[in-house]
């Protein structure tokens, strides 16, 4: 048996889940892995929550630029966090229709847009980006404790979805 596998088994024994608890924990881990490998979950509309037009990697000229700047608050089961960022179209004929916040690839909130972001307008030398900010409050009432990926996607006036930079992992604690 490999050393890391033996250490993992010792860890599982040390947290005293018992055999049935370990089986449940492993079943959940396998399910989450399968969901991740299959490309994520689908929203209630049947559409994938993943962006079809991913441009945040910089390989293609971005039609929409943006960033998830901050996650404010303490991510705890039953609490609320604020998610803040910006999104702006590169071309004047393109409009941002919505910004969706995703947790583990599933839409959990739609952000309020039009928040003043003079810093963004100044940094890019684009005065028309002065209202490119967005923010939303996200409820963690039904979120399991553990590590989760939070990210944002902007939907433009044509319906195309653009991943915004700045997605990150958050650790949701259960302090109840």
Q: What is this structure's SSE topology?
A:
Elements: H1 3-14, H2 18-37, E1 64-72, E2 80-89, E3 96-103, E4 106-110, E5 112-115, H3 118-124, E6 133-139, E7 146-156, E8 161-163, E9 168-172
Antiparallel strand pairs: 1-2, 2-6, 3-4, 3-7, 5-6, 7-8, 7-9
Top keywords for this entry?
alpha+beta, five-stranded antiparallel beta sheet, four-stranded antiparallel beta sheet
Broad CATH class of the largest domain: Mainly Beta
The radius of gyration computed from the alpha-carbon positions, rounded to a whole number of angstroms, is: 19 Å
Architecture per CATH nomenclature, i.e. the level-2 architecture of the largest domain: Sandwich
**What is the arithmetic mean of pLDDT?**
80
Could you please describe the fold and organization of this structure?
This protein is of the alpha+beta class and 176 residues long. The protein has helices spanning 3-14, 18-37, 118-124; strands at residues 64-72, 80-89, 96-103, 106-110, 112-115, 133-139, 146-156, 161-163, 168-172. It has 2 domains: 3-37, no CATH class; 64-172, Immunoglobulins (Immunoglobulin-like, Sandwich), CATH 2.60.40.10. Helices cover 22% and strands 35% of the residues. The strands form 2 sheets. Strands 3, 4, 7, 8 and 9 form a 5-stranded antiparallel β-sheet that branches. A 4-stranded antiparallel β-sheet has the order 1-2-6-5, with no helix packed on it. The longest helix has 20 residues, at 18-37.
């Amino acid at each position: 048996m490999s050393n890391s596998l033996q250490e993992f088994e010792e860890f599982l024994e040390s947290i005293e889940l018992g055999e049935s608890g370990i089986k449940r924990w492993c079943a959940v881990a396998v399910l989450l892995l399968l969901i991740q490998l299959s490309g994520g979950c689908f929203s209630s509309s049947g559409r994938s929550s993943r962006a079809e037009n991913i441009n945040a990697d910089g390989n293609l000229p971005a039609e929409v630029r943006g960033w998830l700047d901050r996650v404010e608050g303490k991510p705890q089961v039953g609490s609320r966090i604020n998610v803040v960022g910006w999104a702006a179209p590169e071309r004047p004929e393109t409009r941002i229709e919505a910004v969706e916040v995703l947790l583990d690839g599933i839409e959990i909130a739609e952000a309020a847009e039009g928040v003043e972001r003079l810093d963004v307008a100044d940094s890019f030398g684009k005065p028309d980006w002065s209202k490119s900010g967005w923010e939303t409050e996200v409820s963690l009432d039904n979120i399991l404790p553990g590590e989760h990926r939070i990210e944002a996607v902007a939907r433009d006036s044509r319906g195309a979805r653009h991943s915004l930079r700045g997605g990150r992992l958050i650790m949701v604690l259960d302090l109840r």
